[in-house]
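Lab notebook page, bench 4
Experiment: in silico fold of construct C2
Operator: M.H.
Input chain length: 133 residues
Purpose: comparison with the prior construct
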Amino acid sequence: MMRIVGGAAILFMGLAASSCAPKGVTIPPGWEDLVQCDASVIEAQTMDRMGEPGCDLRGSTIVLPDATAITVGEVGSTSSQQAFGPGGEAGPEYTMVNWGVPGVGVSKKGAGRTVSWATSDAALELQVRQLRL
């Protein structure tokens, strides 16, 4: 599942693993019972074919269409990084969240738009909600 969101919103990440934070998105219940997935390499453009993985994707690597690779952290963690061009100009900003049961969401923000991919519709919805904060 891929979604493109226009605009240049300021990104604030505030996840809550077990309770709703005032400015965050809650991790869905059941994450505590997930077994560890075998680490794998997952292409962002094919993430939606996975659906809910049924295990914790921590340690897997998500590869974006521009070849940027991001390693999935533990459930509830947010990974954010920004690319810089040869002249030091700011490039795209990448954000990944391990949502637990629904899987993983990853977003690329730059040039006035945001593109997001996720393993399931639920993970994509959480990712988009988080980006709106």
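Observations: DSSP finds one helix and ten strands in the chain. Residues 121-132 form the longest helix (12 residues).
Next step: discuss at group meeting.
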